[in-house]
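Budget justification aside, the reviewers requested a transparent look at the raw inputs and outputs of the sequence design task funded under Objective 1. We therefore reproduce one unedited record. The lines immediately below are the structure tokens for a 110-residue chain.
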């Protein structure tokens, strides 16, 4: 791993371990995955970056190797569930950010 990738991985780990949440994903096929994620849960009373409320503004960021296969499964139309703080969220879509090492998943309450 080159220096930039090492620094990027270290920075994400520090932020997610300090300010993040533990999330679990039970794939429709396979074993449970657990990861430290960044979670933004927009509500009607707490707007996200002064944008209008939308259920799709509920999102998580995670390292691409944490929930391997989640994007592909969501893209295939499978119903995938991520649990954060004991609350289940359905995965609406998953997209990669920047260089593909960080994933952004939009969620909705189940």
């Amino acid at each position: 791993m080159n220096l930039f990738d090492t620094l990027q991985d270290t920075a994400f780990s520090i932020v997610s371990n300090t300010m993040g949440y533990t999330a679990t994903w039970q794939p429709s096929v396979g074993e449970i995955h657990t990861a430290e994620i960044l979670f933004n849960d927009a509500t009607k009373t707490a707007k996200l970056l002064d944008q209008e409320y939308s259920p799709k503004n509920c999102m998580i960021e995670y390292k691409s190797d944490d929930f391997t296969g989640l994007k592909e499964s969501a893209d295939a139309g499978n119903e995938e569930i991520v649990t954060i703080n004991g609350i289940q969220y359905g995965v609406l879509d998953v997209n990669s950010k920047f260089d593909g090492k960080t994933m952004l998943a939009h969620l909705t309450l189940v």
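The chain has one domain: 3-109. The beta strands are 21-26, 33-40, 59-63, 81-84, 87-97, 102-109. Computational costs for records of this kind are itemized in the attached budget.
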